[in-house]
Amino acid sequence: MEDDDNQEFDSGSADSSNTTPIAANEACKKGLYMAMKGRPVKIVDISTSKTGKHGHAKMHITAIDIFNGKKYEELVPTSHNVPVPIVERNDYTLVTIGDDGFLTLMSADNETREDLKLPEGELADQIRSSYDEANRSGKQVSLTVYKAMGIEQVMQQKIID
């Protein structure tokens, strides 16, 4: 076979997938993550209907978006697969808050990053307040960052000694 017959294909890395399919009856439990309408959500309520004359048992799932708090609802046959997002949680020490709103963060292995913006709303006010307090008292601010489905955002903060 000649080299001209070989075709090149684009390939992604092994971790390029945002979700993994899991059977609905295994993945859909209160407190677990699921993907709905392209967003990572945390399941808050589930009700299951019995098998009907013409179909499968169905689950009515109510969930809250982990990044913006929006409520989602979906009806899923228990025999089908549902997409489950790969959610990563990392803790960083806050080094500085830039004038442009970007945060300088340091990981546990002393790697710095400056690509995350200060979140909006009440959490941003809490982070600024904690940062000012920590600078006065010689303490540090720890930020928890969640990453799922191509979205990365600061979700929690606390002052540490």
Provide a short characterization of the protein structure.
This protein is mainly β and 161 residues long.
The name of the CATH topology of the largest domain is: OB fold (Dihydrolipoamide Acetyltransferase, E2P)
Distance between the termini: 66 Å
Quaternary organization: single chain
Category from helices, strands and their pairing: mainly beta
Q: Total strand count, please?
A: 11
Which regions contain 5 or more consecutive residues with pLDDT less than 50? 1-16
What's the helix count? 2
Shape by Cα distribution: elongated
> Domains counted in the coordinates: how many?
2
The major beta sheet can be summarized as: 5 strands, antiparallel
Radius of gyration in whole Å, from Cα?
21 Å
Order of helices and strands: EHEEEEEEEEHEE
Mean pLDDT comes to: 87
Helix content: 10-25%
The CATH superfamily of the largest domain turns out to be: Nucleic acid-binding proteins
Structure notes:
This protein has helices at about 25, 120-135; strands at about 20-25, 35, 40-50, 60-65, 70-75, 80-85, 90-95, 100-105, 110-115, 140-150, 150-160. By secondary structure, the chain is mainly beta. The chain has 2 domains: about 20-85, SH3 type barrels (Roll), CATH 2.30.30; about 90-160, OB fold (Dihydrolipoamide Acetyltransferase, E2P) (Beta Barrel), CATH 2.40.50. It is elongated. The N and C termini lie far apart (about 65 Å). Mean pLDDT is about 85; it is low at about 1-15. InterPro entries: IF5A-like, IF5A-like_N, IF5A_C, NA-bd_OB-fold, Rib_uL2_dom2, Trans_elong_IF5A_hypusine_site, Translation_prot_SH3-like_sf. It comes from Paratrimastix pyriformis. Pfam families: eIF-5a, IF5A-like_N. This is Eukaryotic translation initiation factor 5A.
